[in-house]
Specification:
Length: 224
Amino acid sequence: AQWKPADPVAVLVHGLGGNHRSGYMVRVAAKLKRQGVRVFRMDQRGCGTAEFLSRKTAHAGRSDDIADLLDWVTGCCPQSAVTLVGFSLGGNAVLKLAGESGSAAKWNLQSVIAVAPPIDLEYCAVNLSRPQRRFYDRRFLRQLCRQVRKRCQRMAAAEELPSGARPRTVFEFDDCYTSRVNGFQDAQDYYALSSAGPLLKSISIETKILVAEDDPVVPSEIFN
């Protein structure tokens, strides 16, 4: 496509276990492109084309990486209004960034959209561990453990799971791995410092949060 300098821009941030090639990322990008929107799809740390480029991993609070990407996008498209769109854990991260950054005028950030964001990470992790949600918990856990093994096979600097660790839930994985690799004390510390919920009141730009009442992973009651 031949983009004009002032064409609108959307930056898409994937969720847990995803990357820029995830089906929802590709589909949303295609729909936006047909509407004349220039789209950038982000690969978070350790994901997609960035899988073997960083020792630390993606997590729900990595708003700093998104800020760096917005710096780059603004340099490429200085006249464009930007919409930031995050899915699942990426949705929490974009809301966290919006809450931390106030107006975010330096990025020409016009609006933020978060789809099913787990804005209370501990509540969502505990919800996943309940018997009726264990299917989703096991699925996410398998993805995370597989990702760790693959990175360790390809990267000398990648950190393995602690010796003897056998996490049975996402909460236990975050407690023994995500938090430790990324400089948090434990899962509770990671969740407390990374949840976007407490920052929502600080957001001053147009923001939309899309949730489903029957979402089994992100309970709707956290938005009450």
